[in-house]
Amino acid sequence: xxxxxxxxxxxxxxxxxxxxxxxxxxxxxxxxxxxxxxxxxxxxxxxxxxxxxxxxxxxxxxxxxxxxxxxxxxxxxxxxxxxxxxxxxxxxxxxxxxxxxxxxxxxxxxxxxxxxxxxxxxxxxxxxxxxxxxxxxxxxxxxxxxxxxxxxxxxxxxxxxxxxxxxxxxxxxxxxxxxxxxxxxxxxxxxxxxxxxxxxxxxxxxxxxxxxxxxxxxxxxxxxxxxxxxxxxxxxxxxxxx
Length: 242
What we know:
Rossmann fold, 9-stranded mixed beta sheet, 8 helices, globular
């Protein structure tokens, strides 16, 4: 990550957010200076943050109805765009300034058939009658999950927003959120989940399957290039290491 952000300069600055870029990459940070999203300026479809590659695995392997909770710098949407030429992309973002920044600096307008809703994620999964094959949760309040999206009730609404064979993919960027989130997911999905720790970052991806078996996710991971280990651990459930 470090080498991608060297020799940078600021191209946009306001009270809580700063957009920076160098010769190849562009990203934005909030007040805490944590990089929220990073894209390649000339090839935004190539994911530059390791967790994105893992988060989108099921959605890439089997494109279908899709919704992303948390827009960030649109890196997830750009990475999915080559696989979703015949399926619409939907995203939900609570911060209107993030949406505006994505439109002006992160090429959001270049994505075909993409709709971004300005709303609270929990309101959408509670009220939206649509059912998704892939629901991705990439939400952060500064550096943690927002308080109202870190509850069992929220993830229960997420489960209800899935099709009967749908997949929930969650990005956990703070270790403090891992155990409580995993407890909720384990109970709701009856251990039909897999944890994917990232090798060079402090992110964990949780994939949960809404169908009767976890086997479709396990089969996908076994077929994915770079898999080093896939095993059951009594503490965590299935863990896949890339």
